[in-house]
Amino acid sequence: MAEYTSLPLILAAEQFAKLPGIGMKTAQKLAYHVLTMPPAEVEMFAETLITARQTVRYCRVCQNFTESESCLICASSAEGKRQSELICVVEAPKDVSAIERAGGFEGVYHVLHGLMSPMDGIGPEQIRIKELMTRLSGDVAEVIMATNPTIEGEATASYISRLIKPMGIKVSRLAYGLPVGASLEFADDVTLVRAMENRNEI
Amino acid sequence: MAEYTSLPLILAAEQFAKLPGIGMKTAQKLAYHVLTMPPAEVEMFAETLITARQTVRYCRVCQNFTESESCLICASSAEGKRQSELICVVEAPKDVSAIERAGGFEGVYHVLHGLMSPMDGIGPEQIRIKELMTRLSGDVAEVIMATNPTIEGEATASYISRLIKPMGIKVSRLAYGLPVGASLEFADDVTLVRAMENRNEI
C-alpha cells in the first residue's frame, strides 16, 4: 500500500525542506503548521518574505544588507560620525550585528557574504573580496580581519591579508584567548596555547 | 551603540520565528538564506505555501487533509475497496502516513487534529471528536485508538472509548510492547512491564 499524504502537505513540506538545516521531518511539521494557520497569516508570512527579498540590497560600500543605497553605518561614516579609515571584515551580516551589540567599535565594516572553502568550491571570486579591494585607498589605516576562528575563517583572513599587506595597509586579526568568564578547566587545548602565547603584561 | 540589523532581515526573521520549534537564531539563519535566494525561488516558496493553505481541506468524512471533497482513502472505502466498518483514530495526518507506509491496515481513519491536554486548554471540543461520533452508525464494527502512547494520547483514547463503548461498538488500543529489533537491556521499565502483561502464548 503506497504511503498516503495529501498533496498540499507534500508541496509545502518540499519547500521547507529546501531551507538549510531543515530535514524532511521538520519540514513536514512546519508544513502541517502552515496548513492549520489562518489563511491571512500564511499570506502575511509569504508576502513578508517576498517583500524582504525584493527590497533588500547590498550596501554599495560595505556589502551589508540594507534597504537603501548605503547602509546606516556607512551613511554615519560619510557624515564623519564613524571612522572610515578602520575597516572590520566579517563573514556575514549577523557578525556586524554581534560587534555592534558588543559596542566599542567605531569604524566601518565589510561583509564578505561567505568564507573561502575550496572543498565546497567557494574561491575568492565567490565572496566579496573584490569589493573590499576597491575600498582600500590611501585613507584606510587598518583592516581588522574578524572572520570566525575556524579553518575557513583563518584561510580567508590570511588570503586577504596577503593581498592587502603589499599595499602598506596594516592588517590585524581578532585576538584568540580565553572567553571572559570561562573556566581554564574547560578550555580546549588550542585556545589555552593561544591564550598563553598572547599573554599580556599586567 | 544600538544593535544593527537591516530591516528586511529582521522582518523575515520575525516571520520564521513564529513557526513552531524555530528559535530566533534559526529564524535569522533562515531569513538570511531567503535574502540570498534567487527572487524567483522566494516567490515559488511563498506562493506554494499560500496555494497549499488555500487548497487544503479537511476530508468531510475522516477530517484528514485533502484537496477534494473526501480524501483518497475515504473515496476507496466508498468504492468498497477498504473496510469502512474499521475506523482507526489518530492524532494527526502524519500518523495516517505512518500506518499506510507500514501497510497491512485495510480500514479507514479518523484524524483528531490534536490530543486533549487540559494543561494547554485543549478539551474535547477543540479536537475533532464530534465529527468521529457522527460517523458511528450501526455499520461500524470496531474503533481502534491509535493515538501516541503519551499521557495526552492515553487520556484522549480513554475519553473517546468511554463515549463509544455504551453504543455497543468494540473499541481497541494499539498494543504496547517491545519495539521489534530492540534490546531488553535498553527497554524502559514501563514498556517492559506492559510487554510482560501483554505476553502471548506461542
Q: Sheet bearing the most strands of chain A, described?
A: 4 strands, parallel
Strand order of the largest sheet of chain A: 4-3-5-6
User: What is the helix/strand order of chain A?
Assistant: HHHEEHEHEHEHEH
Counting copies of identical and different chains, the oligomeric state is homodimer
User: What is the number of helical segments of chain A per DSSP (H or I, 4+ residues)?
Assistant: 8
Largest binding interface between chains: A-B, 63 and 63 residues
Low-confidence stretches of chain A: none
Tell me, briefly, the overall form of chain A.
globular
> Per DSSP, what share of the residues of chain A sits in E-state strands of 2 or more residues?
5-15%
What structural class do the secondary elements of chain A suggest?
Answer: alpha/beta
Kindly report how far apart the N and C termini of chain A lie: 74 Å
Give the rounded overall mean pLDDT of chain A: 89
State the total count of DSSP E strands of chain A: 6
Helix % of chain A is 40-55%
> What is the radius of gyration of chain A?
22 Å
List keywords for this structure.
homodimer, 202 residues, alpha/beta, two-stranded antiparallel ribbon, 12% strand, globular
Task: Please give a quick description of this structure.
Chain A has 202 residues and is an alpha/beta fold. Chain A is built from eight helices and six strands; from the N terminus they run αααββαβαβαβαβα. At the A-B interface, helix 1, helix 2, helix 3, strand 2 and helix 5 of A face helix 1, helix 2, helix 3, strand 2 and helix 5 of B.
